[in-house]
Amino acid sequence: MRGMTADTPTMGRMMALIARRWRQILDTELRPHDLTDATWQPLLELKRHGRPLHPKEIADALLLDKSSMVRILRTLEEKGFVTREPDEADRRAFFVTLTREGEARLQEVMRLSREIEMRAISGVAEEDLAATRRVLKAIHDEIQSVETLP
Question: pLDDT category, 2, cuts 50, 70, 90?
Fold first, then answer.
């Protein structure tokens, strides 16, 4: 590709490093709120959907395995951020619901996340941000359809 040398990091590596550092910063900021990056994401999914969800739905949305999701949801339930309610249609299943405390905590986290984003993008021109968001969305949308590389 044009402009790339052997020591130019791939886009995947740059995105991974940015995501890892972003998560470290967010985890540090979330510590006083009794959450981590892993534990606030299910709260966000519940809010985004606006209805109770099965754990599998949350796990699928976050690209997590079911056992990890069960552990995270147990932690969130112990903290009072979610509740589990039986699924009347399937006695073996349950729905996860965001509590008022969970919603309040999510609002705090969203504020912190926006502050981190504003710090991270403070040196980037507005037109570059718009282009970056379009490119990242295109990459995101395309990679969702990739199962494995040939």
Answer: low
